[in-house]
Amino acid sequence: MRRVGEVWRIKGTAIVTGASSGLGLEFAKLLAADGYDLVLVARRSDRLTQLGDSLSERYNIKYRALAIDLATQGSAAEVMRQLGSTPIDILINNAGFGALGAFATLDPGTVHQMIQVNIAALTELTRLVLPGMLERRRGRILQLASTAGFVPGPFMAEYYATKAYVISFTEALAEELRGTGVTVTALCPGATRTEFQSVANVESSRLFNMPGVMDAAPVVRAGYKGMMRGRTLVIPGMMNRALPLVIRLSPRRMVARVSRLFQEKVKR
Q: What is the mean pLDDT of the segment spanning 227-232?
C-alpha cells in the first residue's frame, strides 16, 4: 500500500487459496501489508473471516472470504464467478494436501480429491486468470510446488507426483509467458512446519524429524520475493537448494529408495 498525500492507494487484488492456515495465511499477511485487496479461498469460512477482519483493520484493505472446497469439480470456475469482473493482479495457488500410505490401500476418494486440489483446481484457476493478465500485460502467479516434485515418493506416490506436475507445468508456462509482462513462479519448499504434516499423518516420519525443517514465514517471504522478481523456481533453504543437483547425479532407483526411508516413521 502506498500513501499519496492523504489517500491510500491499493495496488490491486490478489487471490490466495488455502488461506485459512499455514503458508496461505502467511501469504495473505504479506500481500495485505504490501497493499493488495484480498480474495481468501478455503473451506473454513470462520477462519477466513477472522483473518480478513484482522488484515482489513490493520492495513486498510478490502477482502472477500470465499468458503469454497477446491476438491469439488467446478470450484475454480465458482471462485471466478463470484468475483465477476474484478481484475486479478496476483494469484497464489497455495491449496493442497497429501496423505501417507501405500497407494493400493489409500481411499480412492482421497486420491481423487488430492489430484483435484493439487492439480486440477490449480490449473483451472491459472487458466481463468491468465487472459485478463495478458490483456493488461501485467500479473504474477505463484504455484505451491515442493522439493517432493523433484523425486519419486514411495508411500506418498500420488502427492509427490502432483508436485512434479506443478513444477513441470510452471516451467513450461513461464517460457510461454516470456515477454508478456506476466510471470509464473513455482515455490518449492522442503519440510515446513504447518498443518500439512498432521493432515498427511507424517509428523513422526524421518523427514519431519530431521534438521532443516523450516517455519512457514521465511518460506513465504522467499517465495513472495521470488514471485515479485519474476523468478520461475524458488527453493528456500540451503539444504533444499542442493537437492535437485544431488538427484541429477544419483541413480533413479537409489533416489526412490532413499525417499522411501524419509517417509518411514522414526522408531522411538
A: 97
Closest by CA position to 221, among listed 106, 117, 142, 112: 142
Domain boundaries, the chain: 2-263
Task: State phi, psi for 188 to the nearest 5 degrees.
Answer: -120, 75
Q: Check whether 1 has a pLDDT greater than 50.
A: no
Catalytic residue numbers read 159
pLDDT at 259 > cutoff 80: no
First-last CA distance in the chain: 50
Give me the CATH topology for the region 2-263. Rossmann fold (3.40.50)
**Averaged pLDDT of the chain:** 87
State the Cα–Cα distance between residues 13 and 223, nearest whole angstrom.
18
Label residue 249 by pLDDT band (50, 70, 90).
Answer: low
The label of the residue with cell 490493520 reads 58
C-alpha cell at 141: 502467479
Q: Could you tell me the three cell numbers for 166?
A: 506443478
Cell of 252: 533413479
Report residue 253: phi and psi, to 5°: -65, -35
State how beta strands 90-93 and 2-4 pair.
Answer: unpaired
